[in-house]
Amino acid sequence: MFRPILENIRGIAKRIWQSRLVKTLTVAILIFLGLDFFFPVQTDIAYSTIITARDGSILHAFLSRDDKWRMYAELPEITPTLREAILFKEDKYFRYHPGFNPVAMLRAIGRNLLTGRRTSGASTITMQTVRLLEPRERTYGSKLIELFRAIQLEVHYSKDEILQLYLNLIPYGGNIEGLKSASLLYFGKPPVLLSLAELTTLTIIPNRPSSLRLGVHNALVVQERNRWLSRFRSARLFDEAAITDAIDEPLTAYRREAPQLAPHLSRRLRAENPNAPIIHSTLNPTAQSTTERLVQHYADRLRASNIHNAAVLIVDNQSQEVIAYVGSADFGNAFDGGQVDGVRAVRSPGSALKPILYGLAFDAGLVTPKTKLADVPTNFSGYEPDNYDRRFNGPVTAEFALANSLNIPAVALLKEIGTPTLVSTLQRAGFSTIKKQAKELGLSMILGGCGVTLEEMTRLYTGLANGGKLGALRMYYSTDPSDRPALPLKKGEGGSQPVTPFPSLKGRAGRSNGSVGPVNLLSPEAAYLVTHTLTQITRPDLPNNFDNSYHLPRIAWKTGTSYGRRDAWSIGYNQRYTIGVWVGNFSGVGVAELSGANTATPLLFQLFNVLDYNSPSGWFKAPKTATKLAMRLICPETGEIPGEFCTNPVADYCIMGVSRYRRCQHQKAVFTNATGTISYCAHCRPDSGAITRSYPNLSPEVTAFYQSRHIPFEVAPPHNPACERVFGSTEVGQTRPLITSLNDGSDYFINAKHPVEMELGCLAANDVQTVFWYLNDKLYRRAKPTEAVFFQPRLGTLKVSCADDKGRSNDIRIVIKNE
User: Fold this and answer.
1) Is residue 264 within 8 Å of 283, Cβ to Cβ?
2) How far is CA 620 from CA 424, 522, 530, in A?
3) Could you give the CA distance from residue 73 to residue 82 in angstroms, rounded to a whole number?
4) How far is residue 706's CA from residue 376's CA, in Å, rounded to a whole number?
5) Do β-strands 567-573 and 556-561 pair in parallel, antiparallel, or remain unpaired?
6) Tell me: the pLDDT tens digits for 112-131?
7) DSSP string, 606-617
8) Regarding the domain with residue range 731-818, which homologous superfamily does it belong to in the CATH classification?
9) What is the rounded CA–CA span in Å between residue 109 and residue 101?
10) How far apart are CA 402 and CA 559, in angstroms?
11) Terminus of the chain with fewer CB atoms < 10 Å: N or C?
């Protein structure tokens, strides 16, 4: 039944396939595909680079490689009003033809033959786009090429993309091309904000760019504009009221300068993305302009002191986005190096790295906020640092040392932690210059003996603001529309943002060069303790008379002043922002009045007061891992667990399981005679007449400091000269050190989960200056004979050896057991 029907269908199909029309079409398609493959249409346009703010407003624009203002308009910027006006004027059937309009072409050919000259070109928007891409002489041969290229465009691109390409290339006279360029340079606004009158104005200029010159022949432009608006009215293209308002609207167009905000970041982003027509930065335009103004005015006031420049970086702590970037006080000031980017310039940090050092010390369990550190003159193997004010404070708490930026305690902490530990931490934080200098850095790096940038330092402090977790700074968005805020649309023009056909920054992550991914530099507990310390306002880096002249913002901040007073730093943060400020001279010239406290901090406070006054975001709270951060009673004399002589304990933070648990030894019990002129050890103490007294157990450095400053303190009396154990002769006539703590052959019980540090002590001959402590024949520490040495015990048998600088030694053996 169906077989005759199928055979009939096959016969019809065979006759159609063998017909000349089909063969001709097939050959034509194959020829077109071959030509399209070997001669593809080129749409790689050299656009002007545009830097936009996070709200879509343009911050900075650059000329294209061929010195044209040819700005790239994204699809969302081609509003329905613009689309309808341009299509009505240029190509009513644009949506329906395959790149050329056969009816219009036949009509044009007929007119040209009848008149003997060319009166109509019949070019579609697609063909005009081809002519803009590949300019040629107006001949019939050129028309054939344009026809072929127009079909190519229609095959490879959508109608919206072709219209977009056309609007990006149409000429407006001089070196201005593209509707977006004309909109910004003549009306000072993006295309989405243009009125109907302004849109109509821009649609008629490309046909007569020489005679209809905006700003020069505005009266003629208005006349031509209103003629087209009348046509729109006749065609009922727009609402009658809108047409009437557009006809009555005055024309105020004139040639404007291109936007030039955020010059340092704009140049940086352009250099990093040379082929991107639009780079969507993360800058907040209000914050950027405000910061630029404040920095310039502040630098103007400082010039009388021979201080000429400043740089500021502001980061949103939650998103890690840079919202303001000011590389110098005045980009146009060539005399003071205005084009130098102070955000990326390598400078000395002064004391600004100390917070991360104290954070590492908290995490290592070496100190807690109220641990006592010695701020006394100290020689670190030939390196003798001094404090900024050339004064010494004696024993101070760790929080006081950090808040007051004392140098000696910081160097001592770095020596105990180890320079490689700090260097590796900063390398993980993305400090590129420190990575290069790693092998050369020593203890001086904590006082500014290394190279850093404002960007690196500000990013480091965002880690403190985020609980010790450091992320990469973000300076621009990727091309994915969901990755950035929506462009502003005119009222009543909704709709989604389609993906741009010629994307900028394709595949880029939107982060700054050299940035690092998430890194846990500190524990949340250590970061909180550092923040808690840096919030104190009773400190020397508060600007002089600041309370009398400014409002003090609630921030945590740290200052730094480099050697020779070449760099002044002040970096602060609250929950919302981190702001880094550098002040100085790009020439490197030092100024006696330059300091982080009095030169950089006032600008830091101004910025916080202007940008985040009375911030509703609250303040930092103790980390959620509250079981680790706890309070404990400590002796105020040492910051350690109260011992038998500690009568007035105070509360202090500690990190459970991390902070060391050591009994206070600020006083030591000594057996003396009744008059207190002779001390005894356990071996020479008489059976009667000896009494127990307590004496300060000071380190040799603190003892020397008190003696040099004539500060009175109690000293234990000299040891009994008749003591045969200490002063008796050995078989070769020499005296060995006597280990007084610990006891030979004893068993010691500890809590293996929270071990208490154990003390080593000795008595040595009067001619001994240094002793060397060994644990299981491995050198543990070098110390003074009178210095108490502590170590963290481990379960098992332990051999303790003590040798003096004369080569004499003594050994004991003990056993450490779990209680």
Assistant:
1) no
2) 28, 16, 11
3) 12
4) 9
5) antiparallel
6) 666 655 545 568 898 888 88
7) HHHHHHSTT-TT
8) Immunoglobulins (2.60.40.10)
9) 12
10) 11
11) N
- Contact between 191 and 183 under an 8 Å Cβ cutoff? The reply is yes
> If DSSP codes are grouped into helix, strand and coil, which group holds residue 519?
strand
Instruction: Kindly state the tokens that stand for 384.
Output: 């003798």
Q: What pTM did the predictor assign? A: 0.81
Q: Is 560 helix (H, G, I), strand (E, B) or coil?
A: strand
pLDDT at 157 over 80: yes
Query: In terms of residues, how long is the chain?
Result: 819
| Confidence band of 494 (pLDDT split at 50, 70, 90) | very low
Mean pLDDT of 634-652: 89
Q: Which amino acid is at 109?
A: I
Amino acid sitting at position 709: R
Q: 539 exposed, middle or buried (CB, 10 Å; 0-12, 13-18, 19+)?
A: middle
d(CA 320, CA 387): 35
What burial class does residue 402 get, using C-beta atoms within 10 Å of its C-beta: 0-12 exposed, 13-18 middle, 19+ buried? buried
The DSSP 8-state label assigned to residue 40 in this structure reads P
Dihedral sign (CA 114, 118, 124, 126): positive
Q: How far, in Å, are 349, 452, 457, 789, 803 from residue 434 at the CA level?
A: 12, 7, 12, 33, 39
**Strand order across the 771-775 sheet:** 747-750, 809-818, 796-804, 771-775, 778-783
Distance of alpha carbon 287 from alpha carbon 292, whole angstroms: 9
Sole residue written with tokens 């922002």? 577
Q: End-to-end distance of the chain based on CA atoms, in angstroms?
A: 101
CA distance 695 to 67: 83
- Token output for 253: 């167009």
How far out from the chain centre does Cα 753 lie?
A: 39
Enter the tokens of residue 524: 């949340």
How far apart are alpha carbons 438 and 502 in whole angstroms?
44
Residue 498 has φ and ψ, to the nearest 5°, of -70, 160
CB burial of 637-674 (b: ≥16 within 10 Å; e: otherwise) equals bbbbbbbebbeeeeebbbbeebbbbbbbbbbbebbbbe
C-alpha to C-alpha distance for 677 and 480, rounded to whole angstroms: 84
Name the residue among 77, 83, 108, 82 with its Cα closest to residue 95.
83
Element (H, E) at 279: strand 278-280
Catalytic residues: 90, 351
pLDDT tens per residue, range 561-601: 998 999 999 999 999 999 999 999 999 899 988 999 899 99
Q: How distant, in Å, are the alpha carbons of 269, 270, 329, 334, 512 from that of 338?
A: 18, 18, 7, 5, 22
263 contact partners, CB below 8 Å, separation of at least 6: 60, 327, 331, 339
Residues with Cβ within 8 Å of 189's Cβ and at least 6 positions away in sequence, in order, are: 183
Q: Are 54 and 284 in contact (CB under 8 A)?
A: yes
Q: How far apart are CA 393 and CA 462, in angstroms?
A: 31
Task: Answer yes or no: are the C-beta atoms of 370 and 397 closer than 8 Å.
Answer: yes
Q: Which residues pair with 771 in a beta bridge?
A: 783, 804
* Contacts of 298 by beta carbon, 8 Å cutoff, 6+ apart: 310, 329, 602, 603, 606
Dihedral pair phi/psi, residue 611, rounded to 5°: -90, -25
Distance CA 801, CA 760 (A): 10
- Residue located via tokens 């700090």: 422
CATH of domain 265-273+282-348+458-488+504-623: 3.40.710.10
Where in the chain are the domains? Answer: 3-38, 74-173+193-238, 265-273+282-348+458-488+504-623, 731-818
Architecture of domain 74-173+193-238: Orthogonal Bundle (1.10)
With contact defined as beta carbons under 8 Å apart, do 677 and 717 qualify? yes
Pairing of strands 322-326, 309-316: antiparallel
CA pair distance 517, 476, nearest whole angstrom: 16
Give the span between the Cα atoms of 746 and 754, in whole angstroms: 21
- Whether 76 has a pLDDT exceeding 70, the answer reads yes
